[in-house]
Amino acid sequence: MSSFRHGFVVALFALFAAFFLPQTSHAAIGALDDTPGSSLLFPYFEVDLDHPTGRDTVLTVQNASATAMLAHTIVWSDEGVASAIFDIYLTGYDIMSFSMRDVLDGSLPLTGSDGQDPTDTISPQGPFSQDINFASCSTFLPYAPGTIPAPAGMTPADLRKALTGAPTSGVAAGMCWGRNVGDGHARGYVTMDLVNRCSDLKPGDAGYLDSPLNTLTSQNSLLGSFVIANPDTHEWFVDNALSIEAAYTNDPSVTTPGNYTFYGRYNGWNAADRREPLPTTWMAQGELDTSSLIVWRDTKTDGQPHACGTAPGYYPLGQEGFATFGPDSSYGSPGAGTPLANAAQLVPASVLGTVGSKLGQFFANLNASVPAAGGNPPADPAAAQGYIGVMRPSLGEMPMTPGHRAVPLDSALDAQHYVPHN
Amino acid sequence: MSKSALIAHSRWLAACFVAAACWWSPSAQAVVGTVDSAPAATLLLPYFETDLANPNGPQTTVRVSNASATAMLLHATLYTDLGIPTLQFDTYLTGYDSVDIDMRLLFKGIVPQTASAGQDPTDRISPRGPLSQDINFASCSGILPPPGLPPTTPGGLPANTTWDAGTLEAIRAAHTGQASTLWSGQCGAVAHGDNIARGYMTIDTVNNCTMRYPSDPGYFAPNFAGDVTYQNVLYGTATTIDRMQRRTVLTENLVPVEAWYNDPVVSTPGIQTFYGRFNGNTAIDGREALGTVWTSRNMEGSAYAYETQFVVWRDPGQAVSPFACGGALPAPFPLTTREVAAFDEEENVTFASNNLIPYATQLVDGASLSPYTFGIVRFDLGLADGTVRQGYVSSRILRLGAYDAMTFPGALLMTAPQAQCTGANPSPPMCANVPPPSIGVGRDIQF
What is the value of pTM for the model shown? Predict the structure, then answer.
């Protein structure tokens, strides 16, 4: 190609780009960035309840500001049913780590705001840290050992049943809350929201996401991380929690009713939560035959305990498609069926498809229309937010499992309904 | 593909008058102005180590992938740990292609074997998949594929390398802090007294093969006349293995630096951009700056004998010149920091000295910054005089001898443009499109 023609082509590409390529956003809303958010999603946890030194998940939450914060924490089953609800008080610049194994034993993070902790022995205040009283927490913090404050009637024993797919005995007696994989592992995901009062509420309850905001705030101060570890097998997966920013201005992308927001499924898609949604389409490097994928998905429904042996209303979550590529851009056979059917799961990467080489990259478009969601969100009923992390096998003689987050290709604010295909 | 679909597809192709655009697959939304996970036009490997004497010492391998169906030309540049460029090479990716860059082989003169369609008419060097574009970059004739294909003996290393033996020796010397013929016997890196090459690497999307560094005139130019493009399609990972000393292996995502041609956030003169130090902060590179204020985890000691190392990359703020070996470091080194504050889990805080992160890239011992077993460290990578400088931070938490290691990407608290614009009164015009930082998060930790 002559230099003139090449320059002409480039110029025409620029013209095309100006009209057809995705437009930028000046705000960080809609970008998956590791910056402080108003909500955190820890997309997957797993605890081997039968082996104390087996797989466990450690969560860490950090207050990035000097202002005291209250983080409303919800443990969800892998089918998206709220199974445990508690609050964590954070002074300015506070950091709190806890293991999910401890939570499942009824040992919740021990915190107290100034009113519950006047001597600063529970939640100490540093020299640059604010420590204030949340009066609403007087009946909540600090939590007594062996208790799960909400949902009403929940106990550590029932929590373990709920998260392992066994029928609970007390609350929602005889009902199931999650998948029964049969291995004694508790599975699910965790959300943390900045709130202005302690409560036993969950998204979907009156007063939590109502407009004007009754409980939820938009302070964008939380950071977090999680480690899924199996000391016995030297497996580690580490990632930052997904930081979900809220708009404290009237950013129309997350304040327009009908648009996709993170908690849209709980507020009738009225954007009262003002929180950006996650991406829908992802790409990642990895070993196509031995890597595992941590996958979180929006069920677009408000999960409830259900009769054991039956599937939740959203099940199974489908997808718009997968693709796999070898390192030489060879194209493989995409996976079929609904291998990512639940709200949270750890699955072999091979479910996305196969290709004739070991290393490569895989593509997943997690968009899905969910009949039980009733044509929602209105802006794009086929859009569905999600998350993918890659857990890789040991490298040669190394017993390590280094992992990394997949790369998002869009935001559910403008979902890309595209799948590479022949 | 069915016949009717094929016909429709062909008609669509025929209707497109820009070859690259026709193959464009809807990839990431470029949200410039924040360090977000997304395909990008520039990737930064913020720090690498390559033991030139011992293959079991620390080694770094990079894998870069093209997230689009469009063929891409990449230009990689290596820099010393003082930010002086030393070598560059081009790599071609067909659509959805991936390439491995082994730093150990790079320092032996072996670069990835790739070639565009014109140099690879039989598709054996850079095979094209069925969904992938494969085009000719005529400017790469004589450059791609790099020397070294095929090896003279099966399974052996190629007889010919991209750089001659003398140049290779000079490159190795440059990255190990020794006198280098690249600079007439001057030095260009910190002398650590070992045979470990250190530095960082950038990878840019370009529209022609080039011998230029980002610091050279013409690499960036207005109206698409330079070498670089603004195609946000690359992502990658880096794996670091150390079998000898630390016995660790870890994988980290490369740092994405998105670009946009005419977004005022990255095109307003005066606003810091990623390559601003090479273009007088004219923003001609169109690439977002990284953060100024970061926070990252640290763990030291405890029952698990953790050790934290911070990867810290910093923008020198200007082009850096080689210097007389054994003498003082060149300007602007050593770099100071505006504030480094370590917190424990009870919010006790210790402020580190402002001279502990002096280079363009380095591993910093966590214990030198924080006296605490568990906590976080907050970095303001501007200078002590308040000058805003971009940078990047991540944590490597190692359990020495046990091959257990965790990497935590740093969390961004404030971008360089936000730091430039926060508190400015009156706000200069260049700040008109810079989004404010999160409420409650400022450069200073006091509330």
Answer: 0.91
